[in-house]
Amino acid sequence: MADIKQLQLPSQRQLVDRVLHLVEFDSPFVLVSGRPGSGRSTLCEQILGQLPDTLRPVTLIPNSAMKMETVREYLLRQMVPSPLFNPADALADSFLRMAQGLRQQLVILIDGVDRLPRELLSELWALMLANDTLPQPHRLAILLTADEQWVRQHRPQLKGRALPALEVEMAPLTAPEQKIFLYEKGNQLKVPSLLLTKEKVAEILASAKGHPATIMMSLEELMSDRRPRKRPEPFPVRKAAIGLAATAVILLGLTYLVPAIMGGKADTPKVENISGTLPAPVPTEPVSTEQSQPATPTAPSNPAAVVQEWKSEQPTLPEQVKSATLTTETHNYEGRRVVIGDEVVEQLMKNKPVSGALPTEVEQAVVPGKPVSEVPSASVKTPVPVPAPAAKPDRQTLSVTPASTLNQKRSNHFSVQLMGASNMKAVEEFVATHQLAGQVWVYQTKFKGTPWYVVIKGDYATLELARAAVRQLPPALLKEQPWPKSFAQVKKELKK
User: Fold this and answer.
1) Is 6 left (phi over 0), alpha (psi -120 to 50) or beta?
2) What is the pLDDT of residues 130-142, one digit of tens each?
3) Residues 182, 149: one domain?
4) Exposed, middle or buried by CB within 10 Å (0-12, 13-18, 19+), for 210?
5) How far apart are CA 52 and CA 12, in angstroms?
6) Residues 26 and 161 grouped into a single domain
7) Could you read off the pLDDT of 297-308 as tens digits, one per residue?
8) Domain contains 468
9) Distance between CA 257 and CA 214 in Å, rounded?
């Protein structure tokens, strides 16, 4: 019962009107009893919102660690302007002394008085008794909420007043009301209609028995079963590499095994034996490019001598070139006509052996206009700078938030659940990635029998404020699908 909209139900609206009637026309001492989660806190919030302007509210958020001196200080600072008191004195003595001559109109409203020291109930009752004895009593109304067993145990001790202490019980919701409540809360929590089947609705209503908190917890558990999901496993690089290597080995083996199995042999090219006689001897008369110039004999006319010179490794050159000028035409220089002088021939005979091509220096002497190509030097390669890898966010060591810290939160308040994981390592990575250190609470519960760590953020009084906080989250956190979660559910999960 964590939303004011629940009080629009007929039974809840009648209860609020009844309490407001008592507060406005009498000086009552009202004890509202009910199970935890039956709507006591929401009832107090609705009453505070509808109090007349003539009455000033005095409220207190209970804490089991509070001492009686602290409780007196909190109350007296709201009851009297500019108070001056001793926290060790009784509440009635300090209030009546400071309020002399001033008629106060107050409504003291404490939600969960059973979590405060026992002396508070007796001192509040003593304040009402002392106020009744004044000639002009103050207009006081005290409204306390507590567990039904606690109220039945302590209410008989409150005696001595004309208007006895009243007990108002939080009745369970009727069958039509709890069905309306279930569907309204399902729409607010955005529960998919496929999950709220007729069988599931009947099961939730049968187990709730008109208790609003049980319906809310059932809806939250229904959403929790749908939301936690496993993170995608990382790509198995090692297994993929092993698989590729095995595939390569198999293919390589098949290239050797398939020919052996098939029994085929590769066709080898046939080499024909070269047989025959040597080419015809060189004719005695050399070929001349021009008919006008006389031919110079280059080989003897005996064919045997030609064969002998072909096999000789060091052919002997004639001692002296008889012709003055040798004119020939070669295809090595693209059909150009080359004229070799006597000096060039003598230089070849003295220094270098005869080869099929002219040396570079001779070619330059014969063809002076031809440039000599040079081998270009290898270009110097500049190293390409390699970008440094992006730095990973530092993962800080987190610790689980103490349960006492979360139990101090009001059950009707809300927080925002950011994520859930089965190990703290994933939680630490999540907090480090989104830079949430010092901004979140982490508590441990159990999900399907295994430890489960939940990350929540913020303390919001209503569901609308929690939803507004969800919409203001960064896009990276919105991808995790955060959702509002009541502290009543958090406290229940802490007990697992």
Assistant:
1) alpha
2) 999 998 899 999 9
3) no
4) middle
5) 19
6) yes
7) 444 445 444 445
8) yes
9) 72
